[in-house]
Amino acid sequence: MDFIFGNSKTIILVAIAVVVLVLVITNYQKIRGFLLEVKLELSKVSWSTRKELLASTVLVITVTGILTVFIGIVDLGLSRFLSVVFK
Q: Which long-range contacts (CB under 8 A, 24 or more apart) does 9-12 make?
């Protein structure tokens, strides 16, 4: 009994591995077909160039910064306005 309780994690991991292996073996053709379709679809994707990717990243970071400052200013203004109104 000590073997079972002492190695319960190992036994569970082996059982999960066996179940996954059985599922992969029984569904091999479906999995293979799915992966081939994924490869085909990824070949159709229009990937951005490094220059476009960097420009988009800079734009997103800049807009995020601007919106952060704007929302902070609006929040500060509304907080001060409400504190004056409710005094």
A: none
pLDDT tens-digit readout, 34-75:
989 999 999 999 989 999 999 999 999 999 999 999 999 999
The string of DSSP codes covering 19-79 is HHHHHHHHTHHHHHHHHHHHHHHHHH--PPPHHHHHHHHHHHHHHHHHHHHHHHHHHHHHH
| Angle CA 56–59–64, to nearest 5 | 125
- Rounded to two decimals, the pTM is 0.52
